[in-house]
Amino acid sequence: MSLLALRGLGKHYGAVRALHGVDLDVAAGEVLGICGDNGAGKSTLLKLISGAQTPDAGSIQLRGETVQLRSPRAALSLGIATIYQDLALAEDLPVYQNIFMGAELTRPSPLPGLRLLDKAAMRRAADGYLRELGITLPDVQRPVRDLSGGQRQAVAIARALRWSASLVIMDEPTAALGVAETARVLALIRRLNQAGRTVLLVSHNMDDVVAVCQRVVILKKGEKAMERNLAGVGADQLAHWVMTGRG
Q1: Structure confidence at residue 220 (pLDDT)
Q2: Which of 82, 117, 158, 226 supports an S-S bond with 169, CB 3.0-4.6 Å?
Q3: From CA 176, how far away is CA 172, in angstroms rounded?
Q4: Nearest-CA neighbor of 88 among 32, 165, 170?
Q5: What is the pLDDT of residue 219?
Q6: At what angle are helices 179-194 and 149-162 packed, to 10 degrees?
Q7: pLDDT above 90 for 113
Q8: Average pLDDT over residues 91-100
Q9: In Å, what is the CA distance from 167 to each residue of 123, 164, 179, 220?
């Protein structure tokens, strides 16, 4: 049984057909690349799976059951976490508060009926999530604005761990990063996968895709053009497939 299955998924924006008849199976524990030129439908597909938008046609099945993902929070509640290119981090807040944003830990207050933020517990847990990813920060009380691009990606991924996500969608995670930071982010993806998480990697970077993905799905003009195993495939060959939609 697939962890995620899409059947006939479609989305229109007025007269524009952004996605049409997409069938896709994602196995539990795999890293799947989603590739395609600009306008191929990648962003639309991401939005439908993440709950940011609802499909006009078709269905989404999770663990064999049809689900209605009417909002990102609904998707999160089912274990689907999306890390967008802008990461959606609050730069002026410390690392631990970003990890627990929207799911803060509390403790009883001396006043009846009130609870206080348990900042100490959140700091300890945040440090644990980062260590699970192989990341050690000197201080989880540092504001996010002081972190490097790779460290920010780690914070966003740690937030997905906090939500107990079984499926993590990553949108262009290495965009605008240097070589060293890109290598760190790819290492984070591998560690997520080793921990049993399923990852959907949406990327224009063919080197990144062949480095961490087991399979790739290529979209073209809103449809699934091809689907291939990536064993033994190089970045140049993958780029050819993306350009032609054939392989």
Answers
A1: 96
A2: 82
A3: 9
A4: 170
A5: 97
A6: 20
A7: no
A8: 95
A9: 25, 9, 26, 24
Q: Tokens representing 163?
A: 């939500």
Sorted by where each begins, the domain ranges of the chain are 4-79+166-244, 91-157
Rounded mean pLDDT of the chain? 93
Q: At what angle do helices 119-132 and 149-162 cross, to 10 degrees?
A: 110
